[in-house]
Amino acid sequence: MGKLVVLTLLGAVLALIGERLVAFRQRMNASRAVEPVDLPNCHLIEGLENGSEDIDILPNGLAFISSGLKYPGMPNFASDEPGQIFLMDLNEQNPRVQALNISDGFDKASFNPHGISTFIDKGTMRISSASQGLDSLYCMVGNPIKKGIGEMNTDQGLKWDDGTRLFQTPVLILPRTSVKSENSVLRKQIPTLSLVHSSSYFTMKTDHTVYLYVVNHPHMKSTVEKFKFEEQQRSLVHLKTIKHELLTSVNDIVVLGPEQFYATRDHYFTNFFLVLLEMIMDLRWTYVLFYSPKEVKVVAKGFSSANGITVSLDKKYIYVADVLAQNVHVLNKRGNWDLTQVKVIQLGTLVDNLTVDPDTGDILAGCHPNAMKLLIYNPEDPPGSEVLRIQDVLSEAPKISTKYANNGSVLQGSSVASVYHGKLLIGTVFHKALYCLF
Ligand SMILES: *[C@@H]1O[C@H](CO)[C@@H](O)[C@H](O)[C@H]1NC(C)=O
Ligand SMILES: *[C@@H]1O[C@H](CO)[C@@H](O)[C@H](O)[C@H]1NC(C)=O
Ligand SMILES: *[C@@H]1O[C@H](CO)[C@@H](O)[C@H](O)[C@H]1NC(C)=O
Ligand SMILES: *[C@@H]1O[C@H](CO)[C@@H](O)[C@H](O)[C@H]1NC(C)=O
Ligand SMILES: CC(=O)N[C@H]1CO[C@H](CO)[C@@H](O)[C@@H]1O
């Protein structure tokens, strides 16, 4: 009797797993053949052969490329080499890549970079309603005239003390009521005064420091590394390592403040066998996290495998790629950094990383047309590459078109596509990278 129960249970479990496996193979588009879509002007980028998982392009055309990701279950051609960050200047006629030097004091040997995101500190501060103690805040002027310095705690945790000159240009902060009169007086005295006053923003010019945030997997753990980019020296100065118990199995980040970012968790489990089980059973236990020094919280959940994340041009919407569910979630960013779902755009292919075209606001998605070939790598029948463009993201019917598709003969395992004024970079998890005129 006992044996019968056990056998029945075992049969049921096997049937369930079998059914899940079939569904899993379908979700991985295991039997899909790639119809090629070519772009006329493309060439492989010299010096990038061992992966270019993520690409982030600055408004001035400097592209950061993370390379050398070692990830459980994914092929890797350079398993002994530590990862690197490359720089490419897209303003050049024939852009070349250059590895960035990383400052001492950072463990370069275990560097295993994954998603990256840049943040330019323009010194723009939002003063939240919670910090509307504006009447106690009177005046702050940098050189040459120092009229008095207020201390302020914005929701970004900035603190200004008397005597601290944080900004290169003269800066003035006044309570709303007295701004008009005092401002006009001061403007005469300091013609270069860089103060813009609106109801909730004070905009100040600073030296536009560029920070690069990198998801790192040293010894297969997850951290986020914050670097300062030194453009002249072509180097990265390591500033800090961010760790948190919720920052586990991190895939990608999008940085929206000096210390504020969203991060995706791609798997619930960290053990490779359990990860496989999680994917096959489609548990949907992964999420999007918000991180700030003061608060860390889950802001969206229920993803099969949350992957690429990016922000719309107006910074109001967050786009999250769910690779196993083959869709892109459009989420609305709330004042408290919570996210509410606006829509889900189904793509019919395994979407990895997302970027936004700075000219049009369209989403570009690096996709895996046949992810089974990525999991079970065979150089004779390699995984292909696919780049989709999503136009009119917020409309009733976003337009989806294939910009590039290849069966792996040129490019294998595309993970990201990033565009800069007619130039397109396509990166891959472990293979080469393609540069195209678009
Ligand atoms: C890629 O990795 C292989 C194997 O380690 C190595 O021989 C090759 O030089 C690497 N290529 C680049 C461009 O780093
Ligand atoms: C990289 O940085 C190290 C230490 O900061 C320095 O010794 C080395 O010369 C630098 N290399 C290049 C190519 O700039
Ligand atoms: C990929 O798989 C999904 C789920 O099975 C399916 O809906 C989609 O049509 C497939 N895509 C292609 C291009 O075959
Ligand atoms: C991929 O496509 C190329 C030409 O487009 C073809 O020569 C090659 O046989 C294809 N490879 C596979 C594995 O289908
Ligand atoms: C989209 C996203 O958030 N992840 C990264 C993918 O690549 C782009 C640029 O290529 C980066 O901006 C993102 O950080």
Describe this protein with a few key phrases.
438 residues, Neuraminidase, 2 domains, 4-stranded antiparallel beta sheet, 28 strands, binds 2-acetamido-2-deoxy-beta-D-glucopyranose
CATH fold topology of the largest domain: Neuraminidase
Q: Please name the fourth-level CATH homologous superfamily of the largest domain.
A: TolB, C-terminal domain
Radius of gyration: 24 Å
The general outline is: globular
Strand order of the largest sheet: 6-13-12-11-7
**Name given to the CATH architecture of the largest domain:** 6 Propeller
Helix/strand/pairing class, anyone? mainly beta
Number of strands: 28
The DSSP helix count reads: 4
- Major β-sheet annotation: 5 strands, mixed
User: Low-confidence spans: pLDDT under 50, at least 5 residues?
Assistant: 123-183, 185-206
Indicate the mean pLDDT.
81
Strand content: 35-45%
- What top-tier CATH class of the largest domain fits best? Mainly Beta
Spell out which ligands are present. Answer: 2-acetamido-2-deoxy-beta-D-glucopyranose
Distance between the termini: 68 Å
For the record, the count of structural domains works out to 2
Organism: Felis catus
InterPro entries: 6-blade_b-propeller_TolB-like, Arylesterase, Serum_paraoxonase/arylesterase
EC number: 3.1.1.2
Catalytic activity: an N-acyl-L-homoserine lactone + H2O = an N-acyl-L-homoserine + H(+); a phenyl acetate + H2O = a phenol + acetate + H(+)
Describe the structure.
- The chain has two domains: 42-120 and 216-437, TolB, C-terminal domain (Neuraminidase, 6 Propeller), CATH 2.120.10; 129-189, no CATH class.
- Helices cover 12% and strands 37% of the residues.
- The protein has four helices and 28 strands.
- The protein has helices at residues 2-27, 176-189, 272-281, 372-375, and strands spanning 41-44, 54-57, 62-67, 84-89, 97-99, 101-102, 113-121, 125-126, 196-197, 201-203, 209-216, 223-230, 235-242, 250-255, 261-265, 286-291, 296-303, 306-311, 317-322, 327-333, 339-346, 350-356, 363-368, 385-391, 399-406, 414-420, 423-428, 434-437.
- The longest helix has 26 residues, at 2-27.
- The termini are far apart.
- One 2-acetamido-2-deoxy-beta-D-glucopyranose binds next to strand 2, strand 7, strand 14, strand 18 and strand 22.
